[in-house]
Amino acid sequence: MKILLVKLSSLGDVVHALPVVHDIRAALPGAQIDWVVEKSLAPLLVQHAGLHRIIACEIRRWRHSFWTAATWREWRAFRAWLQQDAYDAVIDLQGLAKSALVARLARLVPGGKRYALANQTEGSGYEAPTRWVADVAVRIAPHTAAVQRSRELAARALGYTLQSGPDYGLKVHSAHMEQGKADPGNRANQVVFVHGTSRTDKEWPIGHWIELGQRLKAAGFRVVLPHGNTRELATSQTIAQALNESQPANAVVWPLLPLDALTQALAQCAGVIGVDSGVSHIAVALDLPHVQLYNFDTAWRTGPDTGGRQASVFAQPAPTVEAVWQAWLECRAVHRLATA
Question: Which of 50, 2, 89 is nearest to 168 (CA)?
Answer without folding.
Answer: 50
